[in-house]
Each structure stands twice: as C-alpha cells, then as structure tokens.
Amino acid sequence: MRQLFAPGADAILRLVFLVLAVMVVGGLAVVNGVSRSDYFYGVGVAPEQPVPFSHKHHSGELGLDCRYCHTSVEVAATSGIPPTWTCMTCHSQIWTGSQMLAPVRESLANNRPLHWARVNRLPEYVYYNHSIHVTKGIGCSSCHGAMDTMQLTYRANAFKMEFCITCHRNPEKFIRPAAEVWNMSWKPAADQAVLGKMLVMQNHIRPAAQLTDCSICHR
C-alpha cells in the first residue's frame, strides 16, 4: 500500500501539537497574570468624581481627622460617606463662590446627595467591617495607602484575598497603637515584633486559625 504521508509528517504533527500546547498554556498564563495585576483591579486610577475632592489638602495640609467626614468608621461596617452638610460646615463660609464647588451648593439647595464614584469595591461575597479593624489597631493607611498625599483619591491596593490573609495570619506585624490608627505616616517600630504581640494580647485579637477561617470574611 502506498504511503499517504511524507516521512516528515509525523514530526510536523508533533511540532504543531507542541506549538498549540505552548499557546494554550501561555494564553492561560497571560490571562491569569492580567487578572491578578494591579491594572486589572484599577490600582492607582482615580475615578472621575462630581467634585475633585483632595484628601491631600483636607487631611494632609489642613489636618482634618478622618472621622470628621467618615463618622461611622469606628462603630459600623462602613466608614460612611459624608452628607453635603458636612462639606458646608466650612464651605458655607469659605470658597462660597467657587465654580468647582457648585455641585455641593446645588446638592444642598435641592436636598439631593452627591453621587460619588466608588473607589474601593469588594466582591459581594466578601464581608468587611471597618469598625473591627480600626478599633483593634489596624490603621487606615494599611489598606487605603497614604490618603494625606492623594490629590485625587485612587485605589492603593488590589484587595485580593492574599492581601487580607497576609495580615490575618500575622496581625502582630501590622497592628499599631490606638493613637496611631489615624496616622498616615506611621511605620512599624524597630521592636514591632514585641510591640505587635503585646497589642494583639491587649486588643484580644483572635488566633490566626480563627482569623483565617472562611466564615470570617465569607458569610
């Protein structure tokens, strides 16, 4: 019987399969890499807002405490978005004619809230409580970055599961004294290993085995 394929056909077929396999594996690697990248999560990107609010000016330069605007951060799961009246406690007296603040004045006059674009968003299947973190010694900047340097607010971290688990496994590395929770410039002390363990005990932080239990974040 006459041979249907040339002697080199088998080698060519093997090469084709090899190339296809490399392309599939490479494609999956690229998709996985992109889906885990800061770009995919929008890290460093400041969404457009109705008013270009500057944390750098209000927090960094004027020294406003985080809790002046985010009033529920110590007592509730959400930190709270300030109502227009909070803005107007100052801006009814200063910058009263600023065109940039016209949406704020209109919001007050029409009794309609400003629609801010959300910067940090977690999946619906993730439960997060601000109050338990700040009252136990985890500072704002640990998750949100140096807000006092942000001219426009952007997402500082991707908040992937590994980001949270890193802290939940070793809270002593990240916990800080209560007086430093709102300090955006705080850095771990040289004796953080000792101080952290002491604060974990003082604040009654649960053991890592409990903090990494699925039900802590997925309810």
From TrEMBL:
Query: What range does the record give for the signal peptide?
Result: none
Q: Mind telling me which residue stretches traverse the membrane in this protein?
A: 12-31
Keyword annotations for this protein, in alphabetical order, are:
Membrane, Transmembrane, Transmembrane helix
Descriptive protein name: Cytochrome c3 family protein
Checking PANTHER family in the record gives: CYTOCHROME C7-LIKE DOMAIN-CONTAINING PROTEIN, LIPOPROTEIN CYTOCHROME C
Q: Does the keyword Signal apply?
A: no
Q: Which chain positions lie within coiled-coil regions? A: none
- The Cytochrome c7-like domain covers 127-219
Keyword set includes Transcription: no
